[in-house]
């Protein structure tokens, strides 16, 4: 008997961070962004804001799934940024299935959405969606 093949790869959730400038923080998410990883995402976003970032670039290119809990975390962080200053969150979305979730929830109207991280970093505008 043959064992069933598992052709999918499970990616452990992680957040890689970088700061191209004092006011900009890039958070690159990898793996499932869901109920289980939402607390880690919330903590990373809040820490970046506390450290003075006013523009957060959340790169979802390595995200395989994003659920409502994580979307709520992003909205909460945006609210926090806007309370302190005219902050913004820019999302990098290269996967069509993740972009579709943003479109269905109409969050593509709230967040500025980019195809690549370079585009998100280079945009000089102050809009957030």
SSE layout:
Blueprint: E1 14-21, E2 24-33, H1 38-50, E3 55-66, H2 68-84, E4 88-92, H3 96-104, E5 112-114, H4 117-122
Parallel strand pairs: 2-3, 3-4, 4-5
Antiparallel strand pairs: 1-2
Helix pairs in contact: 1-2
Report on this structure.
The chain has 129 residues and is an alpha/beta fold. The protein has one domain: Transcription Regulator spoIIAA, CATH 3.30.750.24. The chain has a 5-stranded mixed β-sheet with strand order 1-2-3-4-5, sandwiched between helices. Helix 1 packs parallel to helix 2. The longest helix is centred in the middle third of the chain and has 17 residues. The protein is globular and about 35 Å long. The mean pLDDT is 89.
**C-alpha-based Rg, rounded:** 15 Å
SS content category: alpha/beta
CATH architecture descriptor name = 2-Layer Sandwich
Secondary-structure element order, N to C: EEHEHEHEH
Order the strands across the largest sheet as they lie in space.
1-2-3-4-5
* Total of domains: 1
Largest sheet: 5 strands, mixed
Count of individual helical segments: 4
Cα shape: globular
What is the CATH third-level topology name? Transcription Regulator spoIIAA
* Ends apart, CA distance between termini: 54 Å
Stretches where pLDDT is under 50 for at least 5 consecutive residues are none
């Amino acid at each position: 008997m043959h064992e069933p093949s598992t052709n999918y790869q499970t990616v452990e959730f992680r957040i890689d961070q970088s700061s191209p400038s004092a006011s900009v923080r890039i958070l690159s998410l990898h793996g499932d962004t869901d109920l289980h990883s939402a607390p880690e995402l919330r903590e990373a976003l809040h820490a970046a804001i506390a450290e003075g970032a006013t523009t957060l670039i959340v790169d979802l290119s390595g995200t395989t799934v994003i659920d409502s809990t994580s979307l709520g975390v992003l909205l909460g962080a945006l609210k926090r940024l806007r309370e302190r200053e005219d902050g913004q969150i820019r999302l990098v979305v290269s996967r069509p299935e993740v972009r579709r979730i943003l479109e269905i929830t109409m969050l593509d109207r709230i967040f500025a959405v980019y195809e690549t991280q370079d585009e998100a970093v280079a945009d000089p505008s102050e809009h957030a969606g």
